[in-house]
Amino acid sequence: MAKTLLEVFSRLTGHGVPKGNIYSTLEVSEILGLDRSRVLRLAKKRHVGQPPNAARRFWLFSEDDIEEMRERKTGRPRKS
Question: What is the pTM (predicted TM-score) of this model?
Answer without folding.
Answer: 0.65
